[in-house]
């Protein structure tokens, strides 16, 4: 007997699944070593061998002795005390018939499409499930080439893969095929196709077996997850409302819809606060982005007609009522809301004849809309901050008229909306002097712009004290530290630091006093073309290490150029020294042309201040020494009267005489020689200055009724428009300004 006639199975002979004799007892059993351990009466009759002679024989001897006119089953047996592991039964039916029965069961009851092809790829057999899914009949397919049979129904068949599997014997597993079967033409189905080669008993190839499993739901679920992943990656890449709306269209067309329309409220489009969900049935929306195959979609910026998205705006993704195209659902309208605030809607559309939307697509649309709404809110916040920062940093700097006699100024600022916190100022100071300021808060953002505004105000306030530049920066440093302490209560707040350069120019002497903190740009250009690119050098930042700060004093010829610019950002680089020298080394260009040349070298958000120094005309200045004696007050008044008459100023001479008398008297009594009286003619004011060598500061006293003195500064304060004190070297200067008649 051929050993291949023995069917070896691993089954329990008592469970009724094996084709065995009715007694369910094996003819014989063998142990794990292959020796016979039991021999039945039926075995004695069939094989004509007694039990005593059979025990101990090998399984090979026994199988060779089995009759050739039957089919035999070798199978495991349950655990037995005699050590038997395998049993031999005589099969009641032919195993070939059994295999055919099993194959028939698979072909008639399986929910997997089965196809048997011969070597010429003709369909030999196909099960009913495969025919039903494809909407075909058996007589249309069996006996015909599979490429021809399925091709007429619009079902793709790759003959190249069939030939490769038949030639090599290597199976092709899980090959995805997409098509619209005739039985369900509106929906695309996805099948996982596997191809195997089958053989005869000799191992020669007979043809192919092809299985097809409908994996449409699995693949569509995977595609929805992939689309959501793409949405998270590609929507919200910029902090721009319009760009975010366009990204929504780009991601979903054609992956989810044939056309899409994003509509937003005017408040959102213009950076305002979003609204609560509208209760009326006709919210005013404007088209923000469109795309796809629908040529009738409105253009960007168009105000949309009421009711375009239904009689009432949906609060969740909704399938609107069917339109003229029929009862199929080809639209989804999803609101764009975040934390109860209404931003707009998105309308997804599929072309007529396309696969309709399902409940799973509604869930996907909700996820896309939620992600987009969050990105729109982030963009909206940035837009509002951008508007605030641009407004704060783009103020029109109005140079005071009193400063144009000291300097000619050109200002440049190209705001980029990053919240760089840069500022510049031109401040009028007593004595016809002018202060030039450029600064920048180091940490960018809206908080930096707010800090910039407070520091700018502090500089103005400190400038009224007429402090030397290095002293002003020392006090501004204390203000910066105070701002940092206030900000430290906020979670994650960074240290507040800033750079600042403060320059004071005196048009009487041509002297400049400059101090700097941090790395602001400061350069001096003389009329001969020589350029001092860094007269201050680097110094500690305000709010960092603190004073002493860099300081310099120079006397410049008239027509010199002062160039100040805020520091470069932490990740940016300023212009090279050679570029600056080339831009500044042409004083004949004038301050405006010089500002244009330097601005081209600076990044956005950096501010630039270029000033051309001037000198007061000799005829607008008069000064003379005063003897440190009370008798010198009268001559001083007469000298002032003569000067006013010569100038022809429309000023109250009595007020001027009283103010000058009190200032000179105060210097004689409490000051020290030498004493100098100076008058400066302004366009709208007369400036009276008395300088002495005593460092003591005068202070305003409130004299009693019986006191004979102590009313000098009080009189000056009541008659003059303003007065003050500044320290010069070892002494001080007390000044008063008196407005000309008609000045306002």
Helix segment tally: 19
Helix content: 25-40%
What assembly state would you assign to the polypeptide chains in this entry?
single chain
What gross morphology would you assign?
Answer: elongated
Q: Which class best fits the helix and strand makeup?
A: alpha+beta
What's the pLDDT, averaged over the residues? 81
Please count the beta strands (DSSP E, at least 2 residues each).
29
Strand order of the largest sheet: 1-4-5-2-3
| Uncertain parts | 1-5, 8-22, 702-710
Beta-strand share of residues: 25-35%
Secondary structure: elements and pairs:
Elements: E1 6-9, E2 28-30, E3 36-39, H1 41-47, H2 51-54, H3 59-65, E4 72-76, E5 86-90, H4 95-109, E6 113-118, E7 123-126, H5 128-134, H6 138-141, H7 146-151, H8 159-168, E8 172-179, E9 189-199, E10 205-214, H9 216-234, H10 241-252, E11 259-264, H11 266-269, E12 286-292, E13 331-338, E14 341-349, H12 359-393, E15 407-413, E16 422-428, E17 434-441, H13 446-463, H14 469-487, E18 498-506, E19 511-517, E20 521-525, E21 531-532, E22 550-555, E23 561-565, H15 577-584, H16 591-599, E24 607-613, E25 621-626, H17 633-647, H18 653-670, E26 675-681, E27 685-692, H19 712-719, E28 722-728, E29 731-739
Parallel strand pairs: 1-4
Antiparallel strand pairs: 2-3, 2-5, 4-5, 6-7, 6-10, 8-9, 9-10, 11-12, 11-14, 13-14, 15-24, 16-17, 17-18, 18-19, 19-22, 20-21, 20-23, 23-24, 25-26, 26-27, 27-29, 28-29
Helix pairs in contact: 9-10, 9-12, 10-12, 12-13, 13-14, 17-18, 18-19
């Amino acid at each position: 007997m051929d050993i291949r006639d023995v069917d070896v199975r691993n089954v329990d002979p008592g469970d009724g699944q094996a084709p065995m004799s009715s007694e369910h007892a094996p003819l014989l059993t063998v142990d794990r070593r292959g020796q016979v351990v039991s021999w039945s009466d039926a075995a004695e009759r069939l094989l004509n061998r007694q039990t005593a002679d059979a025990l101990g024989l090998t399984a090979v001897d026994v199988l060779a002795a089995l009759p050739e006119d039957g089919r035999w089953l070798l199978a495991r047996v349950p655990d037995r005390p005699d050590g038997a592991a395998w049993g031999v039964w005589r099969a009641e039916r032919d195993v070939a018939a059994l295999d055919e029965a099993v194959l028939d069961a698979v072909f008639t009851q399986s929910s997997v499409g089965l196809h048997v092809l011969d070597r010429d790829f003709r369909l030999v057999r196909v099960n009913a499930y495969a025919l039903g899914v494809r909407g075909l009949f058996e007589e249309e397919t069996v006996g015909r080439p599979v490429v021809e049979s399925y091709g007429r129904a619009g079902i793709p068949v790759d003959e190249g893969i069939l030939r490769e599997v038949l030639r090599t014997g290597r199976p092709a597993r899980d090959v995805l095929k997409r098509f619209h079967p005739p039985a369900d033409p509106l929906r695309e189905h996805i099948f996982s196709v596997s191809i195997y080669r089958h053989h005869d008993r000799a191992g020669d190839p007979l043809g192919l077996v092809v299985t097809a499993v409908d994996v449409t739901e699995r693949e569509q679920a995977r595609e929805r997850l992939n689309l959501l992943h793409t949405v998270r990656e590609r929507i919200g890449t910029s902090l721009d409302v319009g760009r975010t709306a366009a990204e929504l269209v780009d991601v979903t067309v054609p992956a989810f819809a044939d056309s899409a329309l994003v509509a937003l409220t005017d408040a959102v489009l213009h950076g305002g606060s979003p609204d609560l969900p509208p209760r009326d049935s006709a919210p005013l929306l404007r088209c923000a982005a469109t795309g796809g195959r629908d040529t009738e979609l409105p253009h960007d910026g168009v105000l949309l007609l009421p009711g375009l998205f239904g009689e009432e705006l949906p609060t969740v993704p909704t399938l609107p009522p069917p339109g003229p195209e029929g009862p199929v659902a080809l639209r989804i309208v999803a609101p764009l809301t975040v934390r109860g605030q209404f931003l707009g809607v998105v309308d997804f559309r599929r072309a007529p004849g396309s696969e309709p939307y399902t409940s799973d697509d509604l869930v996907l649309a909700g996820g896309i809309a939620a992600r987009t709404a969050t990105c729109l809110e982030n963009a909206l916040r940035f837009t509002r901050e951008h508007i605030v920062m641009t407004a704060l940093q783009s103020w029109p700097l109005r140079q005071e008229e009193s400063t144009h006699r000291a300097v000619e100024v050109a200002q440049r600022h190209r705001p980029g909306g990053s919240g760089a916190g840069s500022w510049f100022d031109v401040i009028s100071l007593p004595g016809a002097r002018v202060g030039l300021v450029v600064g920048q808060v180091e940490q960018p953002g809206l908080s930096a712009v707010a800090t910039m505004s407070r520091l700018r105000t502090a500089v103005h306030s400190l400038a009224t004290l007429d402090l030397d530049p290095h002293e002003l920066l020392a006090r501004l440093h204390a203000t910066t530290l105070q701002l940092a302490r206030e900000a430290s209560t906020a979670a994650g707040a960074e240290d507040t630091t800033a750079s600042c350069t403060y320059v004071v120019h005196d048009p009487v002497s041509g002297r400049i006093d400059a101090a700097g903190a941090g790395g602001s740009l400061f350069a001096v250009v003389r009329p001969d073309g020589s350029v001092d690119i860094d007269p201050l050098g680097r110094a500690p930042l305000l709010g960092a290490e603190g004073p002493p700060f860099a300081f310099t004093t120079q006397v410049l010829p008239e027509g010199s150029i002062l160039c100040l610019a805020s520091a470069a950002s932490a990740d940016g680089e300023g212009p090279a020294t050679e570029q600056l020298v080339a831009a500044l080394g042409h004083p004949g260009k004038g301050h405006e042309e010089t500002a244009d040349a330097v601005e081209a070298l600076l990044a956005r958000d950096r501010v630039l201040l270029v000033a051309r120094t001037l000198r007061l005309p000799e005829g607008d200045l008069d000064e003379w020494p005063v003897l440190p004696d009370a008798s010198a007050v009268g001559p001083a008044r007469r000298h002032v009267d003569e000067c006013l008459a010569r100038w022809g100023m429309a000023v109250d001479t009595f007020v001027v005489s009283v103010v000058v008398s009190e200032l000179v008297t105060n210097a004689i009594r409490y000051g020290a020689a030498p004493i100098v009286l100076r008058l400066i003619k302004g366009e709208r004011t007369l400036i009276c200055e008395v300088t002495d060598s005593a460092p003591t500061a005068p202070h305003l006293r409130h004299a009693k009724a019986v006191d004979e003195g102590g009313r000098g500064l009080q009189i000056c304060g009541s008659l003059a428009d303003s007065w003050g004190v500044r320290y010069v070297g070892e002494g001080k200067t007390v000044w008063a300004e008196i407005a000309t008649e008609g000045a306002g």
